[in-house]
Amino acid sequence: MPLQTIPARIRWAVELMDVQPSDHVLEIGCGPGAGAELILSRLDTGKLFAIDRSESGVDRTKRRNAKAVEAGKLTVRQIDLATLRVPVKRLNKVFAFNVNLFWVRDCADEVALLHDRLLPGGAIFLFYEANRAELVPNIVKKASAALEAGGFRVSVVEQKAPAVVGIIGRR
Fold first, then answer.
1. Where are the alpha helices (DSSP H) in 18-135?
2. What is the pLDDT of residues 28-44, one digit of tens each?
3. Percentage of the chain with pLDDT > 90?
4. What are the structural domains of the chain?
């Protein structure tokens, strides 16, 4: 079955993550479910756990990916990252697109939680649509600092069209 329309920026971000068939992935801020759909298309024995603070985001992701929910490949919850309960050392990758948490406020607790849940070699992939170029340096600086303070090695990747910046923290 062909994937629904997925924006180029989401396609680029998920491609960069190199999702493997057996990966266990956490998506923070699943919104309309496009990222979840694309991640799920790459999973075989792996699973996706998607969270969003918004009830409508959770509902949209569940509807868009109903077969994966029914098959047990996707779990979607309305929850804040700070209260997430995932077993320690369970995740291979964490994905977030346009989630401001990592640069607008102190997120040391959330970063520590993710560090504890990621398997050795796992990574956090934070992506931001850079439609306001003047904001990018501040986003990169603050999100990178938060990840580094939490014990991650950080690299930054940019794509020009569509303009997206990726901040990758490797455990």
1. 34-40, 55-64, 66-71, 101-104, 108-117
2. 999 999 999 999 999 99
3. 82
4. 8-170 (3.40.50.150)
